[in-house]
Design a protein that fits this description.
The protein is mainly alpha-helical. Helix content is 66%, strand content 3%. The N terminus is likely disordered. This is Lipoprotein.
Length: 300
């Protein structure tokens, strides 16, 4: 009874902790019409003036951020004081759009980190609950064994002692088996799930911003440039044993479900790997900005 009461109390506490499944979701969804409809299969517009100064990856990132057109206009301007006002206006437009793209990366990264922390917190609480349960079962088993020994030592009735020994042994064994084979779990919800599109690999994402999804979906942004970043993240999940190749029905990719401690820890790891992939795109952005500084300086 003590064990059951303690477990029920812990379950209610965990339910209260997970009662706010959407607090990591942005209060307002970003809809940037200027970069909607990005297609990874569409050819990159030809621009000999830009191709001489920027790599293909730079231009793809500029296209994703919506700065390719003003960047082309900037490249066509002749250097000198006569075009300085036009150049400054174009640079401000480019800087604002790149700033928006940078904050988009940071926003998605923050959401992934928040969700990973929320998942890890629930895993920690469930682990603490299981530790308490294991302690109660162990103590109960010891108490049952001690009581059985004490009672049989006091009693002179051999038949009663046999019954007590058998009953006490069965109860002790049951408590031991319960401690050994227990698998704690809880209901964990995540209505907005950024892992889902990485697993299913759709052409367009309803949850990721269009500019970021373009970068994640284009193979030119990966190191080997054989597969897209999103494909590589999914492949690492499978290679790490987080999920099977046919594991699309796992709770990780829906709106939630029944999670064990291992499943919670796995989900937190998957969110962490995806967050790292998103944050690394800042390196591509830094390279583009460095070259843009050089272009703007040469225009003076």
């Amino acid at each position: 009874m003590l064990v059951l009461s303690a477990c029920a109390t812990s379950s209610r506490g965990l339910a209260r902790q997970g009662a706010e499944p959407d607090y990591c979701v942005p209060a307002q969804s970003l809809r940037d019409d200027s970069v909607r409809g990005l297609d990874t299969e569409a050819p990159l517009p030809e621009s000999p003036g830009l191709q001489a100064r920027f790599t293909r990856q730079d231009l793809l990132l500029a296209h994703a951020a919506g700065v390719l057109v003003p960047l082309e206009a900037l490249a066509r301007l002749a250097p000198g004081a006569d075009t300085r006002a036009q150049r400054d206006a174009l640079l401000r437009d480019i800087e604002l759009r790149l700033l928006l793209f940078s904050t988009t990366l940071s926003s998605v990264s923050a959401e992934l980190e928040c969700e990973a922390r929320r998942t890890a917190q629930m895993a920690s609480l469930l682990d603490a609950k299981e530790t308490r349960r294991q302690t109660l079962l162990t103590v109960s088993s010891i108490v049952v064994g001690a009581l059985t020994t004490t009672v049989t030592a006091i009693s002179n009735d051999d038949r009663a002692n046999d019954i007590i020994d058998i009953t006490g042994g069965a109860v002790g064994a049951g408590l031991g088996l319960a401690a050994l084979f227990s698998s704690p779990s809880l209901d964990f919800e995540h209505p907005r799930n950024l892992l889902a599109d990485i697993w299913r690999q759709p052409a367009h994402s309803a949850d990721f911003p269009a500019s970021l999804w373009f970068v994640l979906s284009h193979k030119d942004f990966s190191n080997e440039q054989r597969y897209a970043i999103r494909h590589n993240v999914r492949a690492r999940w499978i290679a790490s044993g987080y999920v099977e190749e046919t594991g699309g029905d796992a709770p990780y990719f829906g709106r939630g479900g029944r999670y064990t401690l291992d499943a919670l820890q796995t989900r937190a790891n998957m969110l962490g790997e995806l967050q790292a992939a998103v944050r690394l795109i800042h390196q591509n952005l830094q390279v583009l900005l460095t070259k843009l500084v050089t272009v703007s300086t040469h225009g003076d």
